[in-house]
Amino acid sequence: MTNPLIIVTGKNGQLGDALESISSKFSTSFNFLFADRHQLDLSQTETIAPFFDKYRPQYFINCAAYTAVDKAETEKELAYTINATAVGLIAKECAKINCRFITVSTDYVFDGTSSNPYTESDSANPLNEYGFTKLKGEQLAVQNNPQTIIIRTSWVYSAHGNNFVKTMLRLMKEREEIKVVNDQIGSPTYARDLAEAIMQIINYLSSANNHLSTNIYHFSNDGIISWYDFAVAIQSLSGSNCRVLPIPSSAYPTPAKRAMYSVMDKQNFIHQFHIPLKDWKESLKECLKELGYL
After folding, report:
1. Residue 150 phi/psi, 5° resolution?
2. What is the CATH number of domain 5-162+188-221+262-278?
């Protein structure tokens, strides 16, 4: 009997890359197909059904997304197609063949007006187009496939691709000082930790007796910090001499509005899957080690 097939989209993104890098640990239980946009282009939604007809997976992890937050303000249609329409269609195809669908969403679905960590049942109210398209993707997925699992995450970084950690390291080499906003509060997520968590979820789902209490789960590393705090830790751990100065968001205007507070409550995730969260600073050290700084 052949192993169940797991398809992962967004092969070249941070999370897709992290899942591919750990997949060999699970190769005795599962087969994997990591798809890039040449194999499955979510902006071409007519290709989704034929892709499913060809591969017929047992698990589908959607890591592909339109993630250019500021550009989404002008490329609204493209962002909506990839983050909403395509996600709904994938969910529909998964439902047809009884394939478990896991899709990754974001803290950007919240408006940041809370002073307590957001729970899965708190009202979503996106401040920008990117957050709006991701929320619509969640809604269409559950509408088309009530078995969908949505994992909202935040501030994702890794040794691969473009992200805050790599940008800071580059700027710290180029400049004597940098300014970073200190009034946007959230929690970083190391892509490899999220990848490990997703594979633990799939292991959990593959046991016949395990039932889920909800569709939506929040996941990030443990800890609540500002982007400034994050930059200071990167500077300190990497041994950079660059000065890091705090500034308010008002001094760094962006096309897309950002939430001031996007901390998410992860208790549902911990209780459902029995996976402890790693401290954000420990995970940052792992990433810097991978990049050759430690």
Report:
1. -110, 130
2. 3.40.50.720
